[in-house]
Amino acid sequence: MALTLFLLRHAAHDRVGDLLCGRMPGVALGEAGRWQAARLARRFAPGALDALYTSPVQRCRETTAPLGASCGLEPGILPEAEEVDFGAWTGSRFAALEEDPHWRAWNHSRDTAAAPGGEGMAAVRARVQALLAVLRARHPEGRVALVSHAEIIRTAILEVLGLPLQAYERLEVSPASISALALWPGGGRVLGLNDVAHLADTEEGETA
């Protein structure tokens, strides 16, 4: 008996790669992101999912909407899946952050570092552990999709693999990508990582 959990990163917004948006309000999907969200929805045939969840952040809810419509599911909101609270860094340009020694420490000592006025990754890991436990309890078997954020998805994968948080550098989690886990009491395995085949420039594609 196992839960198959599809971890979907939200589609692109216009500031992705330039600004650390974090929990900033009003960050909506851009034109490219809306296209990505529509393509992501096409990967899951009607009836392919038993439940659908999303982070409360706007860009995740907007990514979830076409998937919910195509699968006939009302998305549930999971606060545990919310973006990292980046505190004082929220809204900063990545180029400016590169000059901040605290930002460098965040990236080089991920297991112990914390965002100024925000979360540490140890706290993020604790809530991801709680998130996985909630989903296992609600859905001991079946197929569930969760739309969340890169750091949340990386942390969930590292948790299943038993790797330290600093190993995040080994994992690519692109906008509108699909990663997948099998979860059972006391364990799990990674089924797929950073699948972006649905974003290929073609009208055909397999459904999950």
Automatic annotation (TrEMBL):
- According to its UniProt record, what is one Pfam family this protein matches? His_Phos_1
Under Gene3D superfamilies, the record lists: Phosphoglycerate mutase-like
Checking PANTHER family in the record gives:
BROAD-SPECIFICITY PHOSPHATASE YOR283W-RELATED (PTHR48100), GLUCOSYL-3-PHOSPHOGLYCERATE PHOSPHATASE (PTHR48100:SF62)
Name listed for the protein in its UniProt record = Histidine phosphatase family protein
Organism in which the protein naturally occurs: Pseudoroseomonas ludipueritiae
